[in-house]
Amino acid sequence: xxxxxxxxxxxxxxxxxxxxxxxxxxxxxxxxxxxxxxxxxxxxxxxxxxxxxxxxxxxxxxxxxxxxxxxxxxxxxxxxxxxxxxxxxxxxxxxxxxxxxxxxxxxxxxxxxxxxxxxxxxxxxxxxxxxxxxxxxxxxxxxxxxxxxxxxxxxxxxxxxxxxxxxxxxxxxxxxxxxxxxxxxxxxxxxxxxxxxxxxxxxxxxxxxxxxxxxxxxxxxxxxxxxxxxxxxxxxxxxxxxxxxxxxxxxxxxxxxxxxxxxxxxxxxxxxxxxxxxxxxxxxxxxxxxxxxxxxxxxxxxxxxxxxxxxxxxxxxxxxxxxxxxxxxxxxxxxxxxxxxxxxxxxxxxxxxxxxxxxxxxxxxxxxxxxxxxxxxxxxxxxxxxxxxxxxxxxxxxxxxxxxxxxxxxxxxxxxxxxxxxxxxxxxxxxxxxxxxxxxxxxxxxxxxxxxxxxxxxxxxxxxxxxxxxxxxxxxxxxxxxxxxxxxxxxxxxxxxxxxxxxxxxxxxxxxxxxxxxxxxxxxxxxxxxxxxxxxxxxxxxxxxxxxxxxxx
Length: 553
Description:
This is ABC transporter substrate-binding protein. By secondary structure, this protein is an alpha+beta fold.
């Protein structure tokens, strides 16, 4: 009996030990599973869609789904980006978005929208989320400061007092224009760069009548202007907004603040009549192409590139194309950037670039705004030179290489050292480029130009390595930021715009051309203003200001 009890006790203890061991194994297994689950939870998947154009070049073995940026985001931030679809341009991207919206197909978690019509429809659809609460809870202090600095950047994505989109900022003044003038022509006739409208006319007169290209023919013009794309309402190559800006605070096509703070349409303001009178005078004197009123910017620029014109307004980035093309036609040509001239009262003005190139919208079911802001702050930090991730540049072997412990940014040196092509990894990021901050880039370029200081990080090195004429032009533009005249209506077309804008714009274009060409007297401008108002302009003005009041309050 005792033996039997001993055996049963042994069996009980042994069984208990086995069960305990099994339990420990299971617990260990469960703990491991929980740990794996936790690790898995730390990587958040964010779906997106984007434009993927020919300018985005991947290294061998990389693509939009797997590249140095997607790997960085997953490893450093715990974000796995999944690009659900791409399109090669804005038009096709917008078409796919509209199809998804109309069919109520689930939208990507985050995507960039530039078209204000589609943006407005998305805001109304209920398929995208408001972001005020997310900004308050998750945006970093430097992001909040940036948002507060440019509140109008939210206007295109504001509805009923709620904000829906995070701004993708532009350069602020990146496409603002200045004057590009043939310096070799100025030198040939011992002329100084013009600073006033009157001095500019003296230069143009010489360029037209003194055979600056030594052709022996009367084949040159004073200045290249283009009005064939959108009249005088937009564009930057061969822009004429600065002529109107020399006479007042308004430019054609832009809704700007009037004296009472409400928005008024630039094309009907009295100062625009003075600008038309000046361009008409230039046309009569032969300073302009006879067909400038129907020339697109692309066609008009040929007069400058071919050496038939001595002056053209264009942004700093035009130094390479189209302005740089002149070297292939006239190797000895010297073109330099100059500030816009002032009018008879010492005033200058130019059309200003908008603050944003689009807004990031978010699927109404998106749950990870905290991770988006973490990502956005990380790359904004790079632009500000405050990055904790990118010490020398973005990624070694892509936009820089280390040699003897020092970063090399020069593209030729980079390719010689690595034996590989230099690529721009900034194009891989979610906004399709490194984010810009209004006025920051040209402010840095102005500083490099004026002080000659060395860059201190990869972002600055990329700017400081640009062509000298570009840097000088950027500095000039930045110094004239106070003359910017911006489009302050950034909402979708109003109801009356949709039905009447085509007629009103045609009325405007025909009248402006007829005045300049001498087909109608200057006084016809006053009749146009009255007709514009009666034909829907007054109603549009009321609707524009209803929108303006709604987004500011």
